[in-house]
């Protein structure tokens, strides 16, 4: 079979002739069959005699092992995507004394954002102090001086496109007397 390089990519972001080596072969086959049926016929249909001639017991065992490995990789990718969809960025306004307050941002690390760079970006944007600190549970969060919670709610999805607006939650916390 002659391999040609096509100018489009499939679901797994690989060229069509390499999809069989990717983790999402079934999704790629379905996409290719729907969008490019002639190419699908070319790549994925063989006569029964050709398949029987190329098959042996060892090939079946290695193919089964490879299929299991690809299925595990695809499941791992799905779990990571589901975790990102379920995670939230929590912006908390914490009152200090009288009119002073700070804003805490928690959960950006779930979206693969470097917290130190994000803190520096917040400090530059809002002209205030910003740092990465550990909270009571031992997790990292960003503390920004001042009440910038409303601005942060708009700034975060505009700056980092992989953080959906639906996953940002505002919380107001008052200091206990």
UniProtKB/TrEMBL annotation:
The record's subcellular locations are: Cytoplasm
User: Which GO annotations describe the biological process of this protein?
Assistant: formation of translation preinitiation complex; translation reinitiation
Q: Which UniProt keywords apply?
A: Cytoplasm, Ribonucleoprotein, Ribosomal protein
According to the entry, every stretch annotated as the SUI1 domain falls at: 89-160
Q: What GO cellular-component annotations does this UniProt entry give?
A: cytoplasm; ribonucleoprotein complex; ribosome
- GO molecular function per UniProt: mRNA binding; translation initiation factor activity
**PROSITE patterns the record matches:** SUI1
Which Pfam families has this protein been placed in? DENR_N, SUI1
NCBIfam families (alphabetical): DRP1
- Describe the family membership recorded for this protein in Swiss-Prot or TrEMBL: Belongs to the DENR family.
Domain notes, please? The SUI1 domain may be involved in RNA binding.
On subunit structure and binding partners, the annotation says: Interacts with the 40S ribosomal subunit.
Q: Could you identify this protein by its name?
A: Translation machinery-associated protein 22
Q: Which organism is it from?
A: Paraglomus occultum
């Amino acid at each position: 079979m002659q391999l040609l390089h096509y100018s489009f990519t499939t679901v797994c972001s690989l060229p069509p002739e390499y999809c069989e080596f990717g983790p999402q072969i079934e999704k790629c086959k379905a996409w290719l069959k729907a969008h490019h049926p002639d190419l699908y016929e070319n790549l994925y249909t063989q006569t029964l005699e050709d398949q029987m001639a190329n098959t042996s017991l060892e090939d079946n065992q290695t193919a089964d092992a490879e299929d299991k490995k690809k299925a595990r990789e695809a499941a791992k990718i799905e779990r990571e995507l589901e975790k990102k969809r379920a995670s939230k960025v929590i912006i908390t306004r914490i009152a200090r004394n009288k009119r002073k307050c700070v804003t805490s941002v928690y959960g950006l690390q779930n979206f693969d954002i470097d917290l130190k760079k994000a803190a520096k970006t917040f400090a530059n944007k809002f002209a205030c102090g910003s740092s990465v600190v550990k909270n009571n549970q031992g997790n990292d969060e960003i503390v920004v001086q001042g009440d910038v919670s409303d601005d942060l709610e708009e700034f975060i999805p505009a700056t980092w496109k992989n953080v959906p607006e639906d996953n940002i939650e505002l919380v107001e916390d008052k200091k206990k007397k």
